[in-house]
Amino acid sequence: MPRPRTPLAKARLTGADAKHPDRFKNRSEPRTSRDPVGKPPAYLDKEARAVWSELARDLGWLVREDRHALEAASLAVGQVRTMHKAQEPITAALFAAMNTTLGKLGASPADRSKVDARAPEDDDDPFAKFDKAAEYFS
Fold first, then answer.
1. Residue 15, phi-psi category: left (phi > 0), alpha (psi -120 to 50), beta (remainder)
2. CB 102, CB 77: distance < 8 Å
3. Which helix (H) or strand (E) element contains residue 48?
4. Within its chain, how far is the Cα of 109 from the centroid?
5. How far apart are CA 96 and CA 102, in angstroms?
6. Torsion angle of C-alpha atoms 19, 20, 24, 25, degrees rounded to 10
7. How is residue 55 annotated by DSSP?
């Protein structure tokens, strides 16, 4: 099985795009709206809505495009909490689903280290690079 393709953002952070510019010259990444995730879907039960609010508050890098992943995580964590409160056994599959969805959002310590929550540079301004030129001439 081939090695997974390195995302452009990671290549920029590690300098791989400068070291191997031919590998990354035609790559692009989807832009996000940078809008907040907003309110939870109306159909979620009380526990899942509470989880949604917690995760949206605690994981400040989530944007509107993350709503579906956040919904899945809210459902899984909400179900685990409900079962725990009722002292029902929690299946390994449900617990694994919860951990996986939280990991996809960057909510575990290991996954959080992979999140780049800095604001992306504005690529729309063709003169932005000249704004930084003053630091070289002082």
1. left
2. yes
3. helix 46-58
4. 13
5. 10
6. 100
7. H
Mean pLDDT by 10 residues, the chain (138 residues): 72 83 80 90 97 94 92 97 97 95 85 64 60 56
Q: What is the C-alpha separation between 80 and 67, in angstroms, rounded?
A: 20
Compute the C-alpha angle 115/99/119, nearest 5°. 15
Structure confidence at residue 5 (pLDDT): 74
Give the pLDDT confidence score for residue 135 in this predicted structure.
57
Token pair 């452009």 is found at 8
Output the pLDDT for position 123.
56
**pLDDT score for 94:** 96
Return the closest-CA partner of residue 61 out of 131, 125, 120. 120
In 3D, which of 113, 134, 123 has the Cα closest to residue 13?
Answer: 113
Its pTM stands at: 0.68
Specify the residue for token string 């993350």: 66
Say how far apart CA 128 and CA 122 lie, in whole Å. 8
118: amino acid identity, one letter: R
